Fold this protein.
Amino acid sequence: MLISRGRKVLKAINFVISQLMRLTMPIVVLACALALGSCHSKKTTVVTARPGVERPVWRPTEAPVTGASQDSNDAALVARLIDGAYQWIGTPYLYGGTDRKGADCSGFLQRLFADVAAVQIPRNSRKQAEYCRPVRRERLQPGDLVFFNGSRIGSGVGHVGLYVGHDYMIHASSSRGVTVSAITDKYYTARYCGGGRVEGITYAARGTRPGMNRELPAQVVVAAEPEAPTEVVPAVEEAALQDETDPMIVVQNRISALVDSAFAACDTIP
């Protein structure tokens, strides 16, 4: 009696276990597959945020205003530079890069100025700051370059952007790629080093360098000074002067004078 009951209990237990196995088997297989998949070598994927997709990008609504003075940027050329720069929005940051596949801050601007304005600026931001003509912040114009410290404040020029007006710049950010930022942001305000003007785009359409008039200055004709009159010596006198300097002629003249004086003395004897 007891043995038969025990067998029934064992059968019941086996039945429960088999049902649990049927229910949990898919879960176990899935867990094993995930575990095996995680054992493969890991590939690091760098995803660069695209500012133009994730958040609105500020864009000027009117043509750039640069000024009318001789040292102002050429408005038409600046408009092309800004349009060209906006086409780079979303380009990932790549240290040492100079194309749409990836670029750093100075490489982006060097390529932009070369492609749009045919102006060659230096490769790194510090050299670009030396290349430009300094401009005070309150006199910045669209098309100017703006320079900042690197990650450490006071470390010298380490970053550069293209000023597009209204306190905004386009630059290659190390965290967001080519994007638009306000130079009034706390981060950039603390690191601002100064602005610079690329001289090549100040006279691109005018054909004159800053500070030069469009017309060439009139040529000043300087009258030639009159030559000092030359003293004309008669041929006879010139020969006489030459004779006086010849030692042989001087001796002959003296002998002739002595002979003449001797004949004169003889004539006076009675």
Observations:
- DSSP finds eight helices and eight strands in the chain.
- Strands lie at 98-99, 102-103, 133-135, 145-149, 157-165, 168-173, 177-182, 192-197.
- The CA atoms of residues 226 and 232 lie 17 Å apart.
- The mean pLDDT is 73.
